[in-house]
Design brief:
The structure is a homodimer. Chain A is mainly α. Chain A folds into two domains: 79 residues, Arc Repressor Mutant, subunit A; 154 residues, Tetracycline Repressor, domain 2 (Orthogonal Bundle). In chain A, 51% of the residues lie in helices and 0% in strands. Chain A contains eleven helices and no strands. Chain A is flat. Chain A starts with 41 loop residues before the first helix and ends in a 6-residue tail after the last helix.
Chain lengths: 257, 257
């Protein structure tokens, strides 16, 4: 993948493997009709797709815009992906490959779920414009995504979950995770009642009571996570609280071992 | 609000109070520069905004498109709302006014939370394109929204919740609710592993085990809800399961009465 960003334009980080020396010097556009498929691969397409969504939101992700950013003819792009749906599967697969499932099989179920859930939330908090798409995108033909679900499903089964409840339990956790990812990006003053504070005394007192309350004695955030670094973050407090409840409640489904 | 929908074009329902007899007969467009502010009010603007989002997604909601749909000059629209942000507050307030908080104070806390949560999820399942916006929209100056939070906050306090944990508990529930609203719109085959079924045996078995499993003995859906009508719905099963866990887990925060 070659890119010629304009000066002063800040681009999201691209994996080092995708960066190539700018052998075309000052030349902005490559000759039309002569895309080199050698510089185009699925990882490069994925990185460019994420860059488009970061810059312009989900609606900015079109095959035409993708070809332009990659500086290839659309026909070259279609050699690698047959549709926008294909691109979305690549993006889904990439994001899911970033989610940490390493604790399943290595730590108790509760801990593994917490590690997975914090990691999953943090990945999507960085990519909220993709949540509406990926939350309803089939996993079919997405190998990394299926690998994540395979590891998590095995973790639940080994922990004693009845097989027929595993998917519901995972979906419940994912719903909480996706919603919580938005909350990470909410403004600090989202619950400021403004001029209506006097007419909403219970809510206003709850908002004021929450402000400044630390996670002390309740932090479930792994060491080094945002919550550990800044225990006051409201989004992390709510996530830790909800995750505790879900882990405890869902854990009750397990058969006695 | 007057609208002249094209023949055959299906429009989302508009509250009866917003419908006016078509006194302009076959005339499609009102004369430019002569908008009548008498036919324009906040409820009409809200209904038109929801209609735009339904038709064209969130990006379709612009002040220009709104004025066009309402058949008024933009200046007339700006007499009622000063910005798109104002329109969003109207939309937020309208949707939140549809959420059922009537059980708080009238039923035990657990039941009230369940009624509220199912209602909240169902409202947003009908308006998923607005979730990314409303999930991070400040509640300031949104009277109906604040009224909802006031009732819910009082319900939590009266049930024995420590004041400083009420907002976190509500946010945790809302995160689950927003994520679950997407799940209602997911395709039935979202977890079809396709050709990779053999390489993902645990996940595939879990998906097959879930299919056809009823909510029997576990249904928390209120009578008459979708889940009660169709107990097989996967989204409702996951929502009921997660909500049970959250209600049980969060309920543990309550002080002994």
């Amino acid at each position: 993948m070659r890119r010629t960003p304009r000066k002063g334009q800040k681009l999201p980080a691209v994996p080092a493997a995708q960066q190539r020396p700018a052998t075309d010097g000052g030349i902005r556009r490559r000759r039309a009709g002569r895309p080199s498929s050698a510089v185009l691969d699925k990882a490069g397409i994925t990185a460019a797709a994420l860059e488009l969504v970061s810059r312009k939101g989900y609606d900015g992700l079109t095959m035409a815009a993708l070809a332009k950013l990659l500086e290839v003819a659309p026909s070259a792009l279609y050699n690698h992906v047959s549709s926008k749906q294909d691109v979305l599967l690549l993006v889904e697969d990439h994001l899911m490959s970033l989610v940490d499932v390493s604790s399943f099989g290595a730590a108790p179920w509760d801990d593994a779920v917490r590690t997975w859930a914090w990691s999953y939330r943090n990945v999507f908090a960085e990519h909220t414009p993709l949540i509406p798409v990926i939350a309803v995108l089939p996993v079919t033909d997405a190998p990394q995504t299926l690998a994540m679900y395979e590891t998590v499903s095995k973790g639940f089964l080994d922990a004693g979950f009845p097989q027929e409840r595993i998917i519901s339990a995972i979906v419940a956790l994912e719903s909480f995770i996706f919603g919580s990812a938005y909350d990470v990006t909410a403004p600090e003053d989202i619950f400021d009642p403004g001029t209506m504070a006097e007419s909403t005394p219970y809510f206003t007192a709850a908002v004021r009571g929450a402000a400044g309350t630390a996670l002390r004695g309740h932090a479930q955030a792994p060491e080094g996570s945002e919550a550990a670094a800044d225990p006051l973050r409201a989004a992390d407090a709510a996530f830790a609280l909800g995750l505790d409840a879900l882990v405890a409640g869902l854990g009750g489904l397990r058969k006695a071992e």
